[in-house]
Amino acid sequence: MGEFTDKVKGAADKVVGSVKEGVGKMTNDRELEVEGKAQQLKGKAEQVKGTVKGKINDL
After folding, report:
1. How far apart are the C-alpha atoms of 57 and 3, rounded to whole Å?
2. pLDDT at 6
3. What's the CA gap between 30 and 35, in Å, rounded?
4. What was the pLDDT predicted at 32?
5. CB–CB of 11/43 below 8 Å?
6. Residue-level pLDDT, tens digit, the chain, 59 residues
7. If we measure between CA atoms, which residue out of 1, 12, 8, 13 comes closest to residue 57?
8. Could you give the 3-state DSSP secondary structure of residue 43?
9. What per-residue string of b and e applies to 17-50 under the rule 16 or more CB within 10 Å gives b?
10. Angle, CA of 46, 50 and 59, to the nearest 5°
């Protein structure tokens, strides 16, 4: 995937993860809450990956 694709996918994962975490908290579903937090971390990592790809392409 390219820089832009990684960043978009990362942003989407952060949003979906945030929703899952919120729903997990509201429904007292600890597993869903943890899954949401993990998905948010995955999204952050994808965004960093996209940024790194961009920096490498700038060299």
Report:
1. 9
2. 96
3. 9
4. 98
5. yes
6. 799 999 999 999 999 999 999 999 999 999 999 999 999 999 999 999 999 999 998 88
7. 1
8. helix
9. beebbeebeeeeeeebbeebeebbebbeebbebb
10. 150
Helices and strands per DSSP (H, E), number in the chain = 2, 0
Q: What is the pLDDT of residue 57?
A: 86
Q: 3-state DSSP helix/strand/coil percent for the chain, to nearest 5?
A: 90, 0, 10
Give CA–CA dist 44/31, Å, rounded: 20
Which one-letter DSSP state was computed for residue 27?
T
Residue 50: its pLDDT value, please?
Answer: 96
Start-to-end Cα distance in the chain: 18
CB-based contact 45:5 (threshold 8 Å)? no
Residue of 32, 49, 41 lying closest to 14 (CA atoms): 41
